[in-house]
Amino acid sequence: MFYSKKLKKIKKVKHCFFSRKKGFSKGIYESLNCGRGSKDNKKNIQKNLKFVAKTMAVERAKLILMHQTHSNKVVEITKKNYKKIVVADAMITQMRNLAIGVVTADCVPIIFCDTKSQVAGCIHAGWKGAFSGIVEKTIQKVQKLNFKNKIYASVGPCIGNKSYEVDIKFYKKFVSKSWKYKIYFKEKNKTKKLFNLRKFVADKLLKLGVKVDHINKDTFSEKSNFFSFRRSFKLKQKDYGRCISTVRLL
Predict the structure, then answer these.
(1) Would you place residue 146 in the very low, low, confident or very high pLDDT band (cuts 50, 70, 90)?
(2) Is pLDDT at 50 greater than 90 in this prediction?
(3) Residue spans of alpha helices (H) in the chain
(4) Quick one: which of 29, 74, 79, 206 could link to 25 by a disulfide (CB 3.0–4.6 Å)?
(5) How far out from the chain centre does Cα 103 lie?
(6) What CATH code would you report for 5-159+211-249?
């Protein structure tokens, strides 16, 4: 379990970036796999989610997760819709008696709160979502709720820049959108670049006036702590688990 130093200081917020430890799943999913979209035993996933809910001091039914699709869709969770299936890649809420969460396996989990308008939120920011504006859309949605904002965000464990190898086509996709995006890439060799997803996402938050800190962990290289889609693919494993990151207002 990992915690943001900034969010930890805010009394009305409880949060946690969970590692892959302390769960019930076995094999490649060992042990706290919270990915409902994985091929893991569904009973074990539910046991894992119950453990997470208990840690966050909410009932299992009050731990709200998304059906994530690498989109730029943001949903506000209210009394009217919290029991419904949420298809989105970011959530915000002003409800106090529930926790919201994001699952990741290399993508960036972002947890944040606005202390002025009493809003908590989480974002699933893979390269596709970040590229298509999930970070901006989410923060702007929060900013519209109140005239004044004081947003604190933590960028959680994700694939590190030394581990995120991409091809030239990927690089060109970014640079053709903005030449300024060149700073997020380093040359590895003639056909490969290294992409700094963490900095790409964090800079977007900073540009929006958000106070940012980091859980600076690389999901790809830290096998004992985190699940990683890319590592599982390289090891030719048939599937992969997902870690969960959660936040709630107290």
Answers:
(1) confident
(2) yes
(3) 5-8, 42-55, 127-131, 134-143, 168-177, 197-207, 229-234
(4) 29
(5) 6
(6) 3.60.140.10
